[in-house]
Amino acid sequence: MKSAHPQLITVSREFGAGGSDLARLLGDRLNWSVLDDEVVCRCAKRLNMEQSTVERLREHSPTLLARISAAFLVAPPEAPWFDTSNLMRIDAIAEAALESITEAVQSLPLIVVGFGTQCMFAVHPAALHVRLVAPLETRVARLRPRFGWDAATAATKAREMDDVRRRYVQRYFHRDVNDPLLYDIQINTGKTTIEEAAGMIEQLVRGEHTLSFASEGSHDLGTR
What we know:
Layout: E1 8-13, H1 19-30, E2 33-35, H2 38-47, H3 51-56, H4 64-74, H5 90-104, E3 110-113, H6 117-120, E4 127-133, H7 136-147, H8 151-173, E5 185-188, H9 194-206, E6 219-221
Parallel strand pairs: 1-3, 1-4, 2-3, 4-5, 5-6
Helix pairs in contact: 1-9, 2-5, 7-8
């Protein structure tokens, strides 16, 4: 049975559903630390890589094409040849993320975004696992002003990133990111604002709203 007073919140999200925004807002409300883009910075330091390189490969799984791309990213452009056995692997980024997040979780309370943390801490007694989803059109409307994309590009990018994150969780944790049993609460931010979603979760954490952590399955708020 999980603790009635969560100290660790994991945030899984569809691309454009507002996961990072929710984490920041919730962190401010609860006065909790938030681990999101900081994971990229920590991985870059661990691996002695450019932060921009790690960011491009964030939550990716190592397809053959990605491995080849990573080789050219890591090798100095002036190098006439390089030893492929020593090239940085995308797996190494995932391993560094796991190590960085595991260290960070030694100091609770904490909110962590992405990186399969709903699987990493599935049995953590003080964890609350949150999943944010939204209709594609809602996500497109959020992504367009953020990145300057047209509607078609935003829709394509959303689908691609959802697939990237799905494959990441499948490769490293052998789970389906869409499995409702991975989450304690799932919120549709197409019908619930990010502010309202943060308020729901804040109430749960503060004990102002009751949620049975002993029950299985997700609690789908904001979808009816």
